[in-house]
Design a protein that fits this description.
Number of strands: 26
Largest sheet: 8 strands, mixed
Strand order of the largest sheet: 16-13-21-22-23-24-25-26
Number of helices: 22
Number of domains: 3
CATH class of the largest domain: Alpha Beta
Helix content: 25-40%
Bound molecules: zinc ion
CATH architecture of the largest domain: 3-Layer(aba) Sandwich
CATH topology of the largest domain: UDP-N-acetylmuramoyl-L-alanine:D-glutamate ligase
Radius of gyration: 31 Å
CATH superfamily of the largest domain: Ribokinase
Length: 719
């Protein structure tokens, strides 16, 4: 049982059952170093002291093992308890434990921690002044507590069939007397495999969703009729057998095994009961698939070990779900044995104390984004932009070029481009301090681009240079031919192809385990991180650093690119090209075109992005001549719209070149976010800067300075 490896950190998980409790001493990898069972007599089950003594006794036994065998691991990480009922993890309360007759909240954490434990140790060995209660012995004043079904699911996700991590959304159901359950998801990169707790830690009681009504509904312990667990738990199989004429005295409710054996031997009532049971199980699981779209449902408990259960079950579920989810959810048998609730309780301790600093359950239970009020305040701080710089060489011609001929252009312009670089210039011209983390080729274009950015005051200390002389390491270049209204672009990604910016090039600490709280130099003083999705490895590293440092992330999404969806998981603000949601939807549907065609309402497309960008506070869609709109999370569909900004009088109402309009919009948005402006003001500012930029040639030609802004917008930034 005990492992020979030496752990560095240990936690205790306890499963509190009706007849015994089991404590396990476990490390982060799920290796169990000691177990201890303590019996709970049925007669004493209702006594709080009995329960507290059983729990603290079991905890004390495995603690002694840690003290004797792994003294370097003291003090332990903490103690978690899996409780067969309803709990309040924040207060450490057992709110409702009908198995023990506890119908009122009981302070289980205090009850256990205040329990004296020295009674069980060998008195002779106990040094003088040794602590007498568990609280002192363990050096903790809190117990991590969850419902036992939730703990079992955590164990299954991290150490059972879900251990590979391939199932990002996984539901677990234990088919016993009732049905325990939990939904596990990845609310953030830091909290992979976490419980979906709901608003009061009560999410996951799948057993009590009502499945049947009328005469065919069985009565439930909860007071309702037709609950899923009455029909589809192990006891539910027996109920079906009885309802179809099986004699009550032959099979008790906890003996589903006998009905399974009768079914296998072909007894008609048992065969019919099995069929009815399977139909109810499939119907309830189909509801689960419709509600949560999990990629796997794991079944635990004794009945889950019946191979016949899985015959055609996935197809039966699919028959009752929407086409989109069909074939996407696997039904799997639990891989763990009886101690999984204890293991899950120990894992809970690690997950809720990660990094040594104690997170409160409230913090871990609320994956919602931070409130919008904490926008970069006060107007200070640097805008750090990570992404593309490129050279745009444009020629205006009277007729399209013809192969193997030479023609003369009307005029030409060679200037800097690239989304992140353009946005950086837009923000810098509005007096925002801007740092651009990017990469140029070791060629003359690289030098030109650097010089141009420096003239606009962009900080290039973290601009890297590609390998000299290597092929495919040129500065990215766009050759643009403009003929009347037609623009023809040939883009050479250059160094992006084989020598993209890597985290180590701007962040020497990237490979090392960073000190806690240490902000890398390139991010120091940042108010906002702005990303265009290019240089994906660098962008993802930057985003993770920003998240760790509490710096919000603005993401520009134009078209689906490798790595972009990773960034979408982390972005706080998203500015999207109008056709990006549709491109994304098609890319996700495998370019099959999907069903139903494009969104007619851009607000609906923006809502879709809010769903796929789980941390985003708002999503803004730029609509060209139609202006822009944004939807905010938690605003119940409120849409903020701004019309396109009228062109300045000097432009005589003429759009000259729309190149870089979207980037100008992003840069102005960054400048507005940095000043903590309200969303409608940000949108007006960004629309104005984007429109003004269209009045001159080149990606950055018309980007206004602060002094060139209309007075009302200038006042916003100068306030
Ligand atoms: Zn019920």
């Amino acid at each position: 049982m005990a492992s020979t490896s030496s752990p560095t950190s240990l936690a205790i998980g306890v499963d509190l059952g009706g007849t015994h409790c089991l404590a396990a001493l476990m490390d982060y990898s799920g290796t169990v170093y000691a177990r201890h069972h303590a019996k709970i007599s049925a007669a004493e089950r209702g006594s709080r002291d009995t329960i507290a003594r059983a729990l603290s006794g079991a905890i004390f036994e495995v603690w002694k093992h840690a003290r004797d065998e792994h003294p370097a691991c003291l003090p332990l990480r903490g103690v978690g308890i899996a409780v067969p009922g309803n709990v309040d993890p924040i207060k450490g309360l057992a709110r409702y434990l009908p198995n023990f007759g506890w119908l009122e909240p009981v302070d289980l954490a205090a009850l256990v921690l205040d329990c004296e434990v020295s009674h069980d140790d060998k008195p002779a060995k106990r040094p003088r002044g040794a602590p007498k209660c568990l609280r002192d012995l363990l050096g903790v004043d809190r117990i991590h507590i969850r419902n036992d079904g939730r703990c079992a699911a955590l164990a299954e996700r991290h150490f059972g069939v879900g251990a590979s991590g391939e199932h990002e959304v996984l539901a677990m159901l234990t088919l016993g007397t009732g049905i325990g359950g939990a939904l596990i998801h990845n609310p953030s990169p830091e909290r992979v495999g976490s419980l979906f707790d709901g608003c009061s830690f009560d999410a996951g009681d799948f057993g009590h969703h009502v499945l049947r009504s009328g005469d065919e509904a069985f009565a439930c312990v909860c007071g309702n009729r037709g609950c899923f667990e009455c029909h589809a738990s192990a006891a539910g199989l027996v109920r079906h057998w009885r309802a179809l004429g099986g004699e009550e005295h032959l099979v008790s409710l906890d003996d589903a095994k006998t009905v399974v054996e009768k079914m296998r031997s072909g007894e008609p009532t048992a065969v019919a009961a099995w069929r009815a049971y399977r139909a109810d199980l499939a119907a309830g699981l189909a509801n689960l698939v419709t509600f949560y779209n999990p990629s796997a449902i794991v079944l635990g408990g004794g009945l889950a070990r019946t191979p016949e259960l899985y015959d055609g079950l996935a197809a039966a579920i699919d028959a009752s779900t929407l086409p989109a989810t069909r074939g996407r959810c696997a039904v799997l048998q639990s891989a763990l044995s009886g101690d999984c609730a204890a293991i899950g309780a120990a894992w809970l301790v690690f997950s809720e104390t990660d990094g040594g600093a104690e997170k409160t359950p409230a913090a871990t239970a609320t994956p919602a984004p931070p409130p919008p009020t904490d926008a970069p305040a006060g107007g200070g701080g640097v805008v750090v932009s990570v992404g593309l710089v490129c050279l745009d060489a444009t020629v205006w011609v009277a007729a399209p070029p013809v192969a193997d001929t030479k023609s003369v252009a009307e005029r030409s312009l060679t200037c800097g481009g690239g989304n992140a670089a353009n946005a950086s210039v837009a923000a810098a011209r509005l007096q925002a301090p801007v740092r651009l983390v990017t990469k140029v080729g070791a060629d003359v274009h690289g030098e030109v681009l650097r010089a141009e950015l420096r003239r606009d005051g962009v900080d290039l200390r973290w601009c890297s240079t590609a390998r000299a002389g290597a092929t495919d390491c040129a500065t990215p270049t766009s050759l643009i031919t403009v003929c009347g209204a037609a623009r023809t672009i040939v883009h050479d990604p250059g160094l992006l192809r084989s020598d993209p910016l890597l985290p180590a090039e701007f962040d020497p600490t990237a490979a090392a385990t960073t000190e806690e709280g240490a902000v890398p130099a390139w991010l120091e003083g940042a108010a906002l991180l702005s990303l265009d999705g290019r240089h994906p490895a660098a962008a993802l590293h930057a985003a993770r650093c920003a998240m760790a440092a509490g710096v919000p992330i603005l993401l520009d999404v134009e078209r689906p690119r490798p790595g972009l969806e990773d960034l979408m998981q982390l972005a706080d603000y998203v500015v999207s090209a109008s056709d990006f949601p549709e491109k994304l939807r098609r890319a996700r549907a495998g370019n099959a075109g999907g069903d139903g065609g494009e969104w007619t309402d851009p607000a609906a497309a923006a809502e879709y992005l809010l769903i796929v960008c789980p941390r985003a506070r708002w999503v803004c869609l730029t609509l060209g001549a139609e202006g822009a709109l944004a939807v905010e999370r938690g605003s119940r569909g409120k849409v903020t719209r701004v019309p396109a900004w009228p062109l300045p009088a000097s432009a005589a109402g003429k759009v000259r070149d729309t190149t870089g309009a979207g980037d100008a919009f992003i840069g102005a948005t960054a400048a507005g976010l940095r000043r903590g402006l309200p969303l409608p003001d940000i949108l007006r500012l960004a629309s104005c800067v984007a429109a003004t930029n269209c009045c001159a040639d080149g990606a950055r030609g018309g980007m206004p300075t602060l002094a060139e802004l209309p007075q009302e917008l200038r006042a916003l930034l100068e306030a």
